[in-house]
Amino acid sequence: MSYAYLFKYIIIGDTGVGKSCLLLQFTDKRFQPVHDLTIGVEFGARMITIDNKPIKLQIWDTAGQESFRSITRSYYRGAAGALLVYDITRRETFNHLANWLEDARQHANANMTIMLIGNKCDLSHRRAVSTEEGEQFAKEHGLVFMEASAKTAQNVEEAFISTAATIYKKIQDGVFDVSNESYGIKVGYGGIPGPSGGRDGTSSQAGGCCS
Amino acid sequence: MEKKRANDEFEPGPILPSQSVDRFEFIKQEQNSSEGLSTSRSANEHEREERRIRKWRKIIGVGGSDWKQYVRRKPHVVKKLIRKGIPDCLRGLVWQLISGSRDLLLMNPGVYERHGPGQRSLYNVLKAYSVYDRDVGYVQGMGFLAGLLLLYMSEEDAFWLLVALLKGAVHAPMEGLYLAGLPLVQQYLFQFEQLVKEHSPKLGQHFSEEMINPSMYASQWFITLFSYSFPFPLALRIWDVFLFEGVKVVFKVGLALLKFCHDDLIKLPFEKLIHALRNFPEDAMNPDTLLPLAFSVKVSKRLEELQQEYEKRNGGTLPKAGSTNRLLQAIKHKELSIKPERSNCVQKDDPSPRILH
């Protein structure tokens, strides 16, 4: 199937926060309560539409345990978007965000769009991180923020799509040289080549768009 | 909402039909009560009790959902109610709510049930290993090895087999599979990528063009030695050979799979290729087809050379855990009475929450 653009994503965050379940909900529209442990990396893809243009998302889902970072790190390179996930019912997964962000900033390209996701928001009775804290962290670090539930599908589409919309806007603003695939963006055959205005050097803040 | 029922506690105790044993299986004391009144009084009593239970249920909410909020709003009411006694049919739930244990349970779903016999064995083996080898600790992926072993032997035997494999009792130690940064996995992936190029040059070329590298499909093969997602009969057959011949069979099987599916794989674009490399067809997974093909692939010499090349590139041999040499010496001197040094352990990562998810 032809696409106007292809965006590559990576999903990161502590083990057990629901990265694989978010991906499964997004690509297959289903929830698996007992999901296999991710060893190494998993892959998923889906077509979406932004601004009436077909956009292909290719998503790498990574293992969360610290030991695996040497493997998952190589997937930062060439990613246009990252979903950084924590579990709203486990405080420590929120506390580790800065660590993950440091890793991402070190290994990804500087213009990677990062979406912060507080997953498992269906379990609000077990909440250990308030929505405000999530918002605050996102604001401080220039991330887009949403709470979501891979179980109920709440905000799952929105998270993936608004990340794409942010990337799309950056392309329009000429932030990327789209001919350079290391940004995790590919211009498709059916697509409109390049940004309309060319590179004007103004970079938009990551938090600009969405819900 | 709360109506006073102050007279409750002044009512005489219920008069129950004569039974020898109560609901707690205690033998009942004979009560000398005036007959006659008992029927109407116990009916009254029954109604009152019903009302009390309904009220408690309302306060508690479904499964205890409203309890916390009610306590926060009207602590004095709760205190008084409790002093009057918790209805027996709700006592268990309420005890859990007031002690906070209900929250602990909700915050730790599955922790208790998980420790059924099989899970407990797995936990014990992994815990024992993580205590025994603090340099490695517990790493996701180990559970699949231990799980496989436990199907065929006791916990203690599985533990020692794990030790023998990772510390290298017979073959080269494989602890690097699970040491920080998975250094041995990185080395294996490097070796495998080179071997693919050498054994199936066209496919290797196709992989390069499609930007496919072995970490995308073969990490699991090495980290779990095929015990993660391969059909069981095949995994077991591979393990037979692996234990005797060492890790080279993992390379052989991997290369054989690619050879077997070569003509299909070479036509596929990126996404379909990823899918195909993670979902090999059934006929490829037949041990009697795949293993003879695997045994025909020669890798020993190149594996050694590639290891040296990898070490040269990465500046020296893999980091080895401190305990390796000590253990190897112990094995050589047949002094295998190794005990964990301390019983209270500090682990890198607790094995309990994530086993076999």
TrEMBL record, chain A:
Major localization class: endoplasmic reticulum
SUPFAM superfamilies xrefs: P-loop containing nucleoside triphosphate hydrolases
Source lineage: Eukaryota, Viridiplantae, Streptophyta, Embryophyta, Tracheophyta
Pfam families, per the entry: Ras (PF00071)
One GO MF term attached to the UniProt entry: GTPase activity
Keyword tRNA-binding: no
One GO CC annotation: endoplasmic reticulum membrane
Keywords carried by this UniProt record: Golgi apparatus, GTP-binding, Lipoprotein, Membrane, Nucleotide-binding, Prenylation
Entries under InterPro entries matching the protein: P-loop_NTPase (IPR027417), Rab_GTPases_membrane_traffic (IPR050209), Small_GTP-bd (IPR005225), Small_GTPase (IPR001806)
Entries under Gene3D superfamilies matching the protein: P-loop containing nucleotide triphosphate hydrolases
Organism: Phoenix dactylifera
Membrane topology: Lipid-anchor
Compartments, as annotated in UniProt: Endoplasmic reticulum membrane; Golgi apparatus membrane
Family membership: Belongs to the small GTPase superfamily. Rab family.
UniProt name for this protein: Ras-related protein RABB1c-like
Superkingdom per UniProt: Eukaryota
UniProt keyword Lipoprotein, yes or no: yes
Automatic annotation (TrEMBL), chain B:
Residue intervals of the Rab-GAP TBC domain: 85-246
SUPFAM superfamilies reported in the protein's UniProt record: Ypt/Rab-GAP domain of gyp1p
GO terms assigned for molecular function: GTPase activator activity; small GTPase binding
Disordered: annotated span: 1-22
Alphabetical list of Pfam families matching this protein: RabGAP-TBC
Alphabetical list of PANTHER family matching this protein: GTPASE ACTIVATING PROTEIN AND CENTROSOME-ASSOCIATED, ISOFORM B (PTHR47219:SF9), RAB GTPASE-ACTIVATING PROTEIN 1-LIKE (PTHR47219)
Protein name: EVI5-like protein isoform X2
Originating organism: Phoenix dactylifera (Date palm)
Classification of source organism: Eukaryota, Viridiplantae, Streptophyta, Embryophyta, Tracheophyta
Record gene name: LOC103696916
